[in-house]
Design brief:
Blueprint (H helix, E strand, L loop, with lengths): L1 H16 L4 E6 L6 H10 L13 H5 L10 E8 L13 E2 L8 H20 L4 E4 L7 H7 L4 E2 L5 E2 L7 E8 L19 H5 L5 E3 L2 E2 L5 H7 L15 E3 L3 H4 L19 H5 L2 H5 L3 H7 L9 H12 L3
Parallel strand pairs: 3-10
Antiparallel strand pairs: 1-2, 2-7, 4-7, 5-6, 8-9
């Protein structure tokens, strides 16, 4: 037990040294509470065209099926909050998380560094790092590790820092000291996120119909955006921050200190007309190492064209 405590404290200290906002640890086990919710969400088709959400149902709920001998799930958060804005207020908007370099690469590299340190200080430890790239329910594990509660907009919320952070996991095969104190729900009677969503994607407290979410429509959806959303996209061309921007807990957000998340200098300066006339070359230049590349040039152009008034 003494070693578990020492190892857990070491891991949290090293995570902080690597720039992570927070770190919590939970026992690797079956997510009983999440199983019926995930099944209902899928059965109602709220995942839209995200067919991959139907795959590996059992693995999504049990990390021991992802990592042999898994004993602990280490959840980490990396801050990306920025008060930077695009200079032209009429220009199509991009979610804050995509301002700079692709977070997948940055976080994965740091998780590997953390795993290396664990191996150096503990001994040979088996483990895998996860950043949106495998069937892991990030928010459920972060909640289980006491890092926050799931808000009515389905994001993980923290009283200390709000919700503008990325979540990632390191699943390892050693026993650690677990953070078993759950965070109470502090949403209260507030419905700001529900009221503000222009596409009515938050169909009830804590339930988001992914197929109606602007982030889904501008990133995940590969076909044409349904006409019912014409005039309801609030000028978002990649992602959406509305339900986070209106959340009262985000008044506690702190500016990130990660140079890689600084907006590309040309991104902020492009005007509405520049976006409407964007070329493939400009797209490749501005979004060379960006998460925006996921939607590809044709996808971003589709989104921008959809935002044009009728």
């Amino acid at each position: 037990m003494q070693n578990r405590h020492a190892y857990s404290q070491m891991i949290k200290t090293e995570a902080k040294n690597l720039g992570f906002l927070f770190c919590g640890i939970a026992r690797a086990e079956f997510l009983e509470e999440e199983a019926p919710r995930l099944e209902t969400w899928l059965n109602k088709g709220m995942h839209g065209e995200m067919r991959y959400m139907e795959n590996y149902f059992d693995k999504r709920l049990d990390p021991r099926l992802l990592v042999d001998g898994a004993k602990s799930v280490i959840s980490l958060g990396l801050n990306y909050y920025s008060n930077e804005l695009q200079f032209d207020p009429s220009a199509p908007k991009i979610s804050k998380y995509a301002y700079g370099s692709d977070y997948h690469l940055i976080i994965k590299d740091r998780l590997k560094q953390l795993l290396q340190v664990i191996n150096e200080k503990v001994g040979e430890v088996g483990g895998r790092v996860f950043v949106d790239s495998a069937p892991v329910l990030d928010k459920a594990w972060a909640k289980k590790a006491g890092l926050g509660w799931i808000g009515k907009n389905s994001n993980l919320l923290s009283k200390q820092v709000g919700s503008f952070f990325f979540l990632a996991e390191l699943i390892v095969d050693i026993e650690l000291e677990y953070d078993i104190e759950p965070t109470a729900d502090h949403c209260g009677t507030c419905t700001k996120c529900i009221d503000a969503c222009p596409t009515d994607a938050i169909v009830g407290p804590y339930v988001v119909d992914g197929s109606r979410c602007i982030s889904y429509l501008t990133i995940e959806l590969k076909n044409e955006i349904p006409q019912e959303f014409k005039g309801k996209m609030d000028n978002w061309m990649f992602g959406c921050d509305i339900c986070q921007d209106v959340c009262p807990w985000n008044r506690f957000s702190v500016l990130h200190t990660e140079p890689s998340f600084t907006p590309h200098p040309e991104l902020q300066g492009l005007k509405k007309e520049d976006w409407q006339d964007i070329t493939r070359d400009v797209f490749q230049k501005v979004f060379k190492n960006s998460a925006v590349k996921r939607t590809k040039f044709d996808g971003l152009k589709r989104n921008i064209d959809f935002l044009r008034p009728i």
